[in-house]
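Question (not urgent): is this output format expected?
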Amino acid sequence: MNITAINDAQNLIAPYVKRTPLEYSTSLSRRTGLNIYVKYELFQKTGAFKARGAFNKLLNMSEAERAKGVVAVSGGNHAQAVAYASTALGVDAVILMAENTPRGYVEATRGYGATVELLPTIADAFRRVKDYEAEGRVFVHPFDDPQIMTGAGTVGLEILEDLPSTTDIVLSIGGGGLAGGVATAVKGMDPKIRLWGVETVGADAMSQALAAGKPLELPGITSIAKTLGAPYVSDTSLALVQEHLERVTVVTDDEAVGAMVFIAERLKVITEPAAACTLAAVEKLRNKFTPESRVVLIFCGGNTGVNDLCGYLKTHGSLLPKYNP
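Got this back:
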């Protein structure tokens, strides 16, 4: 994966994905005392950046491979992306998901045309993949695949095309595909730009891997940010984060939901906790930036159902900070 491959991916997937907006946010800038811009990737096809990688993967497959179908594992957004891309390209898709996946994600994935199989845990889902590969299906990994990461990297290209003066990019990390792809794109265009990763407590596979110096498998995902719930990161994504990111900041679910509520009330969009956590991280990192910094937050997804949102508020509502209008 390199900047040339990411440029090629941008051209390949252009007919199938949206070029999402990047806008300056007065509300977030006032709240943080910084110049904050938002990359609204939650307006992407299927509501998250994942469609970029899914289309790049499937479009690079041979006709014979597509004819055998694909299998994927996901906590939600990758599932919908693979289902959508598969239907658009006439490919049969089986998606393996954990039983505790929010119902909205499961129903949406089925709605996009895929067959869904539920397993007790996401780790069980990964183990089940081998059975489908034995049948001839191609595994579309949610992050540990160069074509998936290359597709995700097109987000970075768009950011710098729209805001060449970007100084910092803050993005969330699940398995590390978005971080690795965007970092490769951005550093390939301007090595001076800094990238900052974010995870939530209970979905912090990258932070634990950084501390250990190698990928570790989490015993379970306890964060409400299910779309960050990769049970492990890959050697490739770990190496890219070690090389290109300034640090990975871990925030609590409470902090992520607090940021999510503020974003909903001021920016009028409903993000996932996995996206809102970028704002929570910026507040922890505020002293790393200057008034001249131009900081881009990637709102990676917005597939939060009404029931999920009500549940977050019921669990975390009493802990939300009060903000002045």
